[in-house]
Amino acid sequence: MPIASDPSSDTESPDDEQAVPMLACHRLSPRPCVNQALVEELKPLREFRFLRYGTHAKESISYATAVSCIIGTPFKIETVEQAAKIPKVGEKLTLKIQEFLEYGFIKESRYAKANELYERGVRTLEDLRRAMNRKRIDSYLKYYDDLQEKIPRSEVESILAFVELQLNRIKPGFKTLLCGGYRRGKEFSNDVDILITYPHRDGEERGVLQALVERMQQKNLIPEDGILTLTTCGTDRIITPNRSATLLDALDKALIIFRHPANGTTRVRDKYRRVDLVVTTWREWGSAVVGWTGSTQFERDLRRHAKRIDLKFDSGGIRDRTTDEPVEAVTEKDVFRVLGLDYIPPEMRNADP
């Protein structure tokens, strides 16, 4: 499948048949990728940078972009010379790749996480829980063991069925879609992302998220301390305090802890899972689907690409960067068309390890 190229400097070697586009929205990112073993070795180093500098720091983004480019490299990296031509792969990272090619592992990656935690005084699981102390963390730690478990696809689908049952009691006629890692084809997910809209009926979604969350609380599907965040686009429909919504954050969102009732077979006891409920208007459906499908690097690169062509993109829609006027893109494929990109299927957007 041909992938659109950016007329600006998007690759390190534009005349090289093996050149790799820098932006994830210009290439395929399968999981597993052809260099998966190398990516797994680099993943702890990427996470180490996130811990040390923060996820939005230049040092973190640069390294994450390099790893993402390796994921999108369509050939097996067998030489240092090949590695050096990949975008964002600098001299230091090239040396790490050389170590992997020679020994099959990267020594530093084996100790990166342990060293960072040790520096923060972490020696035991209890130390780790205390080190994670931040806003709303008490609720999170209460269900820590369950929330650390990966969620199989069958359970993701079961959770959706519970949510749809409650939606039917509130306002039928909705459309839902499982997004995130599930939609990208991952066998196991860290959390569950559920997108909700009312096809061709803008305005019908108003008030649905609050009603859904309140009903799920009444049904004990959300524990008393299970609402981590709820935003409702700056309207009066907020039931827990949170930051104000902005033009670039225009979707109703509830980040909750969901109690998945025991069924006596696959779940011999109740399980607690992280679930994101996202309600969007129909006219924003395409952007919401793209935005909530991910992956993180893919979304970051979509925004970078949009900026290059004087547009703004996020899960709340596409806008002209000069006039701030919305640009219509109702479907997912409309989003790619408006952004001048070839359509990339969800399973090829796994641009993060």
Explain this structure:
With 353 residues, this protein is an alpha+beta fold. The protein folds into 3 domains: 31-131, DNA polymerase, domain 1; 145-280, Beta Polymerase, domain 2, CATH 3.30.460; 291-348, Beta Polymerase, domain 3 (2-Layer Sandwich), CATH 3.30.210. 41% of the residues lie in helices and 13% in strands. It has 14 helices and 10 strands. Helix 1 (36-53) runs parallel beside helix 5 (107-119), helix 9 (153-170) packs across helix 11 and helix 12 crosses helix 14.
Mean pLDDT: 87
CATH class of the largest domain, named Alpha Beta
Strand content: 5-15%
Task: Give, in spatial order, the strands making up the sheet with the most strands.
Answer: 2-4-7-6-5
Could you name the CATH homologous superfamily of the largest domain?
Answer: Beta Polymerase, domain 2
State the distance separating the first and last CA atoms: 23 Å
Largest sheet: 5 strands, mixed
Overall tally of structural domains: 3
Strand tally, please?
Answer: 10
The CATH topology of the largest domain corresponds to Beta Polymerase, domain 2
**Classification by helices and strands:** alpha+beta
Please count the helical segments: 14
Low-confidence stretches: 4-9, 11-15, 234-248
Helix and strand succession?
HHHHHHHHEHEHEEHEEEHHEEEH
Percent helix, as a range, is 40-55%
User: What does the overall shape look like?
Assistant: globular
User: Judging by the overall fold, what is the CATH architecture of the largest domain?
Assistant: 2-Layer Sandwich
Structure summary:
This protein is of the alpha+beta class and 353 residues long. The longest helix has 18 residues, at 36-53. It has helices at residues 36-53, 58-71, 80-84, 91-103, 107-119, 125-131, 137-142, 144-148, 153-170, 180-183, 208-218, 285-293, 296-308, 332-338, and strands spanning 151-152, 175-178, 188-189, 192-197, 227-231, 252-260, 271-279, 311-314, 317-320, 326-327.
